[in-house]
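LOG
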Amino acid sequence: MNISIGTPPFEILAIADTGSDLTWTQCDPCPECYKQDAPLFNPDSSSTYKILSCSSRQCQELGDHICSIEANDTCFYSISDGSTTGPVALPKTIIGCGHNNEGTFSEKGSGIIGLGGRVVSLISQMGASIAGKFSYCLVPFSSESGKSQINFGNNAVVSGSGVVSTPLVKKSPDVFYFLTLEAIGVDDDKLEFTGSSLGRTEGNIIIDSGTTLTILPRDFYSKLETSVASKIAANRTDREFEPLL
């Protein structure tokens, strides 16, 4: 997702992530940054860049943060990790300026666009102007057949023949968008989902555009794997995969 930050506008390309709240980019100086192709954002070059006070409500919402009197009460944070409209200006928008970053990021990107549910996310900061509505259709970054689309407000409403929906469930932590998975079908097999660490009934999974894989509890995955294997007329191959950390 391309956005511009600062004054004059500085364009960044970052990951649209519904599982994150804070929008952040790598900033100069950056002694511990992952490699990126684009130039780093220099906050000193922006006339509208201001440091967020550690006593602010938004800083407190970050959870894993520390205050530094020596650094003028700066809020320091730590986080783990189509149809288009014209440019929209969002003054006084809170972003994270990363000077120590690591992770499995593409060199093409330069940070995260936080689309989660907390007060520091881009969705929350856009406020009443979009009524909390957004929709997206994402294609692989390397795709040559189409472009990803993200729409906000009234433009985000998806309607028409064949459209289906499922309700979001409000739960904690409120950064995530929780859904309820009842079952997965494999041909004529219906595998009832018995729940996860997030719950056994409503809100037992999250939808996260920043995560590549669908992750399931081990026991349920085993049943799913067995069912899929029974429907495929092919021989298994033995391959070793690196474990997920």
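LOG (cont.) second protein
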Amino acid sequence: MESPNASIGEETSRVRKLEMSDKSKGFIDLLQQLSVCDSVSDEEFKERFQELRSYGDDHLICVIEDDRSGKIVATGSLFVEKKFLRNCGKVGHIEDVVVDAGARGKQLGKQIVEFLTDHARAMGCYKVILDCNENNRVFYEKCGFKQKEIQMVKYFI
């Protein structure tokens, strides 16, 4: 699954699925711009990558690679929750959307969210949901999302 090209400066890049080689292209560094993400060894990355790949289309991580630098400059993920509600329906959960600080303002985040939303729709999800902080609310509203209820969390670490 690939998207139409997104523009990064003068170059064009596409949204695509995460590949094993993306660790060396700054994927983990990019995640560190979003939240706590300690160093991940090559072996840990390989094991997690293979685990997530085994879920097929029910778990998708996508990226945008800057063609000029070869660095991953945007990413996001979607997992599909299978429910008993809504006639055994499915819900898409968007997570971990981040655009490199140096590449913001170029519609890359929108490309990522649209790619993930399209995937959720193609998987038969009746809705797609996400959590975000207040600073990102307007961005997600521009992507077609609306605020509903509140988020609760309980951390174990």
